[in-house]
Design a protein that fits this description.
- The chain has 328 residues and is α+β, with helices and mostly antiparallel strands.
- It has one domain: Oxidoreductase, molybdopterin-binding domain (Sulfite Oxidase, Chain A, domain 2), CATH 3.90.420.
- Helix content is 19%, strand content 20%.
- The protein has nine helices and 13 strands.
- The strands form two sheets. Strands 1, 4, 5, 8, 9, 10, 12 and 13 form an eight-stranded mixed sheet that branches. A five-stranded mixed sheet has the order 3-2-11-6-7.
- The chain is globular, with a radius of gyration of 19 Å.
- The two termini are 24 Å apart.
- The relative contact order is 0.16.
- The N terminus is likely disordered.
- Bound molecules: the ligand Nc1nc2c(c(=O)[nH]1)N[C@H]1C(S)=C(S)[C@@H](COP(=O)(O)O)O[C@H]1N2 and molybdenum atom.
- The ligand Nc1nc2c(c(=O)[nH]1)N[C@H]1C(S)=C(S)[C@@H](COP(=O)(O)O)O[C@H]1N2 binds next to loops.
Length: 328
Amino acid sequence: MIILPKPDIFPSEITPKAIFEQRRAFLQKAGFGVVAGSVALFTHPLTAQAEKLAKSASQSRPKFSGIKKSAFSTSEKLTEYDDVTSYNNFYEFGTDKSEPAIHSKLFKAHPWTVSIEGEVKKPKTISIEDIYKLAPLEERIYRMRCVEGWSMVIPWVGLPLAQLIKWAEPTGNAKYVEFVSLADKQQMPGVNLPILDWPYTEGLRMDEAMHPLTLMAVGLYGEVLPNQNGAPMRLVVPWKYGFKGAKSIVKIRFTEKMPVSSWMKAGPREYGFYANVNPNVEHPRWSQSTEKRIGAGLFAGRIKTQMFNGYAEQVGQIYAGLDLRKNF
Ligand SMILES: Nc1nc2c(c(=O)[nH]1)N[C@H]1C(S)=C(S)[C@@H](COP(=O)(O)O)O[C@H]1N2
Ligand SMILES: [Mo]
């Protein structure tokens, strides 16, 4: 069930007043009484602790060693680490870009297991440490394009999703793969709010999932993935809008039928299953022909968005015969 003020918009576009009203209604229902003033996510007990923790010792994250560089990387200028880790979409931790970094500080991404279900020889689970060992980890520098019109260039660390799928042993009936994010009300304050139909789910067609460009990311900038970027494991599909990249994945399910993602449920006219970056197909409320590169500077203009985010040569042929206007 979705109780957005308007079900078809990103909460980040809801006016602060609408968000405030919505949160106040929620808090009243939850017995917190009326809160005045702030429009930030209500104070979760974890947040105060996290802020203290952040002020104490500088937290350095474990680094991966011996990562091989990938030939699939772009040579474009990297987006600064601080921008990659402080300007995020991760609604489980709040809808403002700055909220995930703040509210996810104490999130426990280790230990972690992922369950493999649906059309597989037999259901099984795998730990994040064993996923690290499934294939040599690679650094892949990818252009990333959010449906909201901004982009980044991020040096991911990960393994081809195809390697994990091979380990999962899907049956011949598997036509699609569904990815399910964690939805933990204790650790993720946003999950207590009716922002999306939790848990966050996404899906890919089997050939998209097996494509060599599709990455299961476990790190960035050589480090273990920061919580706000989807620790310990998140999907990266560089030719699709950012929302396809489900974060903090706990379940991978192989299906015969096309899965319905959280965003398709929230706004079927606006967010389709494919979500391929396409400058020629406008979002119902804005153009997708240009983008703003985060960190490019105050005076940098918007840049042209490329077909399939610049990966047309590698992925264009898998959509031959598909009407990309209908299948957006
Ligand atoms: N579980 C979950 N995954 C998510 C989201 C989210 O809100 N929850 N946001 C998506 C969107 S809209 C984008 S643009 C990317 C942002 O990834 P980043 O913060 O690492 O750049 O994550 C995607 N994955
Ligand atoms: Mo996005």
